[in-house]
Write the structure tokens for this entry.
Amino acid sequence: MDFTFEAISAEEFERQRSSFEPLTDALRRLIDVGIHTEVDGDTVAEALEHLEAATALLERRQRAGRSTLRHADTGRPVAWANPAVGLRNAIAPPMIIEHEADGTCWSEFTLGPAYEGPPGWVHGGICALVLDHILGEAASEGLSKPKFTGTITLKYLRGTPLGPLRAEAFVERSEGVKTFARGYLLDADGATVEAEGVFIEPAWARDAG
Amino acid sequence: MDFTFEAISAEEFERQRSSFEPLTDALRRLIDVGIHTEVDGDTVAEALEHLEAATALLERRQRAGRSTLRHADTGRPVAWANPAVGLRNAIAPPMIIEHEADGTCWSEFTLGPAYEGPPGWVHGGICALVLDHILGEAASEGLSKPKFTGTITLKYLRGTPLGPLRAEAFVERSEGVKTFARGYLLDADGATVEAEGVFIEPAWARDAG
């Protein structure tokens, strides 16, 4: 595994964010619109031409592969490409993770029609995605330490409605290379899904430490 | 919960699939290209104009909300919008689920850069999404019976590399309203993640049965 990271200054991060965030937002909107459009074949073909033109423009210069940037000030990965929190990945809601001084993490975000499982409800696997991610953030101190999910258990207490949601997570205890984290997905009426996870420091990081 | 479904004939399904699938594929490509583009601000702005034009075209006619279509022949939900299997949801890889006569489900699919967690590896939460979905397919006989995830436990045996993968699931046993399913995510060398889930028939469906 290659975990070499480069640093990005706060200023350069801000420049890239302000340039690329509108692009990701436009793609999120297109994902939603694409799911529910009922326009005829000719209109789809016309839309496709625009999408292909946009692709050709954006392909003119591509970063080679992996996203390994870290914030120069905090040392945390920028995680532009991450499917839960990535500001440049249209798949991500995105979750913006807040880190409290006591190590607790939380995030408030909205899950719209692209995350629907049963009609009107969030797909159970999307609940798992957001909880795996936020438990991992708590266990790894904001992804600043390499920790991998060992085991995660999700208890679905009731359906999670599409719309505004909150996720939170904290570390319960650590034993050697294992960190035990717990968290919740919540709507306005309280918890909908509870998660418990064990996160493990990989052997190569232990050797390096 | 409103679980009213409308039927769609094989012919109409095929017509809609062939019209809309290229659109979803184009969006999947744009998601990937958008993550890694390094073009300058002017080029981003030019691409954005195309994306906004495409959005305006596709918005001309939108289905009202929820996706409740079922195949007229099998009774299974079409699940166009589903974030794991939806042919019209650019977030979905998509998984195409195969159902064996013995109830086993499997799917082969590729997870590219949009699903990356640690550099080069699939995000643990994405592994959870695909496993929650395929266990649910097995437990609900291809989504033909309403079953909700009660509990799911995922054991991460090793990292899951980006690229071609396989998921499989089967029912271990049923006890009253509970169905116990098990499944695996695998690369060419075998299982990377193991999942065990309990799926529950909701009270309203029991009453209706």
Summary: Helices of chain B lie at 10-36, 41-58, 124-139, 203-208.
